Amino acid sequence: MLIEWIEALVLGVVQGVTEFLPVSSDGHLLVTQQLFEWLTGSDRSGGENIFFDVMLHLGTTAAILYHYRGPVRLGIRSLIADDPDVGPDFRRPMVLRVLFLAFVATLPLVPFALIFKPWVDGLFQSRTAAPVGFLISAAVLALVSLKMRGPGDGGRGPSETTWVDALLIGSAQMLAPLPGVSRSGTTIVAALFLGLSRVWAVRFSLLIAVPAVAGAVANELKDAIQDPSKLNLTPERVAQTLAAMVLAGLVGYAAILWLIRVVRSGKLWYFSVYLVLLAVVVLGIVSASGGGSDFDASPNALDGPSRRLDAGTPASTGPVAPGGAVDRPDSPLP
What we know:
It is built from 13 helices and no strands. The chain is mainly alpha-helical. The chain has one domain. Helix 5 (92-106) crosses helix 10 (198-226) and helix 8 runs antiparallel to helix 9. The model is unreliable at 293-334 (pLDDT under 50).
């Protein structure tokens, strides 16, 4: 159906724009998905939406690797054969140090994903989870904006960053799977509060997104292989997912450049204001439509019960549009 292609491509653009900006791609994807569900009157399971979201994160992760292709190439070159011609930041000891810090920052996600994943998945059926998450992200950004007053990029770099710093930043990343809570926002804010430089805070945030998203993708692919019927992966839906992934990657590359400029300028409070306004609008719509975990006033279900699907539960009435739409790394991702 044309509307499904439009939804997939719109979600790809939304993911690309919001993945790296501190506004929560998960929350924006969830709100956009719920808007399309309200417009069409057909709901998808939480499992379908989460799978699609994670695949979109794979597209934006490719944008990270492409943007930092030069440093990645130098780092691999130094690991294979320590090249004295490269700069000190890309000598083997420094590359190994940065990889170790990224590993430490990823560790807190493992128990979180194992213990809280079912609960987090359930939040993606809620109409109020995303706006509440937006308000949390807004508060965090407002706090760090006060700390970032004034020009300059002073602070610690990779050589001064300790494993304790990495663990604390990784602990902040545990909030990323929650709808409306920005992974890039929480990790960059944590890094800045710990005294890391603005440039290194952005780079480290993007670096630790890669293993987080890779883990989420592996987990979702495992579920898809074990029970493909649960995700309703029709050939058309697979094509829509691939197209949305490519679009998310292209748009995400531009968003990375935007993020770097924003953090350097110290203007994160702009996004705090935006998130508060967005949360108020979404909560107002939810309140007007009856609240709860579904929109009972779906335009295609005005004379009957809303046709919402709980994750993994088949519909009892009404047709269900094939496919689904989809952030978050159990990211990853952001």
